[in-house]
Each structure stands twice: as C-alpha cells, then as structure tokens.
C-alpha cells in the first residue's frame, strides 16, 4: 500500500513549502514475508528496490 498526500501544515504555515507531499508505504502478507514474492512484485510494477 502506498499513500501520497499533501500536508496543509507544510503548505499554508510553518515552512510554507508549496506542493510538498508525504509518501507512506507498507508491505503486507506475502510481500512482507517472502523476498521472492516481493522481488517479483517490484519487477512487475517496475519499481527499483
């Protein structure tokens, strides 16, 4: 699961970094436990490990 979101506190106050986003990710199930499954998944979605 990957979630990308804009943080209002970063864009409206504080550092006022326009367009800043935060990405949170996690691997669950077989992708978390099995290195071969994880490698195959990342190859299919063309993500560099």
Q: What labels would you give this structure?
A:
49 residues, two-stranded antiparallel ribbon, 3 helices, 39% helix, 20% strand, elongated, GTP cyclohydrolase 1, hydrolase, GTP cyclohydrolase I activity
Rough outline? elongated
Rounded to the nearest angstrom, the radius of gyration is: 16 Å
Number of strands: 2
Annotation field: number of helices: 3
pLDDT average, as an integer? 81
Main β-sheet description: 2 strands, antiparallel
Structural class: alpha+beta
Q: What is the topology, as strand order, of the major beta sheet? A: 1-2
One letter per element, helices H and strands E, the order comes to: EHEHH
Strand percentage lies at: 15-25%
Which spans of ≥5 residues are poorly predicted at pLDDT below 50? none
Helix content: 25-40%
Query: Kindly, what is the distance between the CA atoms of the first and last residues, rounded to a whole number of angstroms?
Result: 15 Å
Short précis:
The protein has 49 residues and is an alpha+beta fold.
What's the SSE blueprint?
Blueprint: E1 2-6, H1 8-12, E2 21-25, H2 30-33, H3 35-44
Antiparallel strand pairs: 1-2
